[in-house]
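User: Write out your own:

AI:
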Amino acid sequence: MTIENPPAARKARLLPQLIKFGAVGAVGFVVNLAVFNGLMLTVLSGVPHKTLIATAIATLVAIGTNWVGNRYWAFSKNRQANTAREGAEFLIVSLAGMAIPLLCVWVSHYLLGYTSLLADNIANNVVGLALGMVFRFGFYRWWVFSPDRADRRAKRGAARPAEPAVLTGSTLAASPDGGLVGD
């Protein structure tokens, strides 16, 4: 069995994509921070469990901001033709990623007893968002905006023969790496 590295083109796309993802995430961070603190200091002051509610609302607003930035900029070359499906997948990953800062806030606030606004911000916007960022980037890159999906979509879009193709030669030889037969 041979283990191959990803093609050089994919490696070359990773760093710029990671930088763009980080920039989109920075905008999402600012949105999250502004909404979280705005809610904590105004609308939700005096509401029970306001920290968890503010975290959830701020994260949902940031998810919307991040989807636009990731779809149209960071992962623009790999976005799906089916926008609704892509949006649903993005939302699934983002909601799963939202559980990470919520868990961090819950642990900090309710288990450890750190109830100040600063402690809530650190749990939510430092620890939670950092861990969530790693989780989301992985799932966005390898599932929602997967380069493999974009490649398959491009191949499907190519002209298809009118009649079923007749298999000639080895299917391994036709694989992108040349396979083990027919080299």
Q: What stands out?
A: The CA atoms of residues 7 and 15 lie 14 Å apart.
